[in-house]
């Protein structure tokens, strides 16, 4: 079928055949389908959906637009994790070395932040000398020798996804469950992992604002995993409050190091250990308790080797913001917590994130929370710190947080359920 016929078929709610899907995505990859045609098809898919079979074929065609990484035999079971993105979600940083310290190999190919959610690569680039881009040979060697790699996706992995995602971003077609699920899963399947744990975020700071939508996305992704023979499990976890106390690149690295040294915020430790258990189960590693391994310092040792293997100096001081402003409580009461979307947007505006793909990020910018939900605070107590190198950004962030994230009332604390 021609591209126009495929667009019309989806417009008229027909199920696309494997041939139509392979044909249109293959032609798009070769530059024979115009961007406006793919945009029309993406909108038809957003409005009319795709069946599980269509979504599996769509994913296969995206994988086929590039190469599948051959990680070969690294001597340990391969397992990876993907988070759909949240505020303060630095879990990959302690998790990858922890799971490696337990005996698996973690090929965590990651992305950068866009919008209010941070990117793992942006965070690690706050470490002096650390390098995100590795060759396939370097990835393989590091997996065998260290057990964990966090690096940029190589340009050869699912290249059709890169173009399609950029196109969806400017055509209002990001929010389609089959398109999100196939985008994420095509990259993970092309990476060559042996198992995958999905952390699907739910709440104000997440892509999916409700349990129902998050469950739909989780179901679509696990179905793609099953169709491709990749053992995949999914957890839905809360994202109406930021994870931990810190949001921002260097701030989140520092908090992750605290966790790796046996401290850090309880919610970050709990989610790290829970996801590690899921990953170890998929990797077939039993009888190793990740909580004990974390407490032993073995995960921190892997962290140091993982950072050093990519040119970073794990002992170097992290960048510090030139301007720090403290927001205080305007009355006494209970701190109900800061809304994830508000904190994420404030950190982004302070310089931790980017507005366009080409923009640089500030390593030191972000938000640190000095109180946690349920804390009793008195008028004038410090609640939040705003960090930035560009002080002209402070008023905007201050306004955003004062308006939405300082609900200090005398009522009962709001506790967040972690699912
Ligand atoms: N993340 C992705 O990688 N793809 C999407 O479509 C959405 C989020």
UniProtKB/TrEMBL annotation:
SMART domains tied to this protein: PYNP_C
GO molecular function terms noted in the UniProt entry: 1,4-alpha-oligoglucan phosphorylase activity; thymidine phosphorylase activity
KW Glycosyltransferase (keyword) present: yes
Keywords, ordered alphabetically: Glycosyltransferase, Transferase
InterPro entries (alphabetical): Glycosyl_Trfase_fam3, Glycosyl_Trfase_fam3_N_dom, Glycosyl_Trfase_fam3_N_dom_sf, Nuc_phospho_transferase, PYNP-like_C_sf, PYNP_C, Pyrmidine_PPas_bac/euk, Pyrmidine_PPase_CS
Gene3D superfamilies hit by this protein: Nucleoside phosphorylase/phosphoribosyltransferase catalytic domain (3.40.1030.10), Pyrimidine nucleoside phosphorylase-like, C-terminal domain (3.90.1170.30), Transferase, Pyrimidine Nucleoside Phosphorylase, Chain C (1.20.970.10)
GO-annotated biological processes: pyrimidine nucleobase metabolic process; pyrimidine nucleoside metabolic process
Annotated GO CC locations: cytosol
Domain Pyrimidine nucleoside phosphorylase C-terminal per the UniProt entry, residue ranges: 334-407
Subunit organization: Homodimer.
Family (UniProt): Belongs to the thymidine/pyrimidine-nucleoside phosphorylase family.
Name of this protein: Thymidine phosphorylase
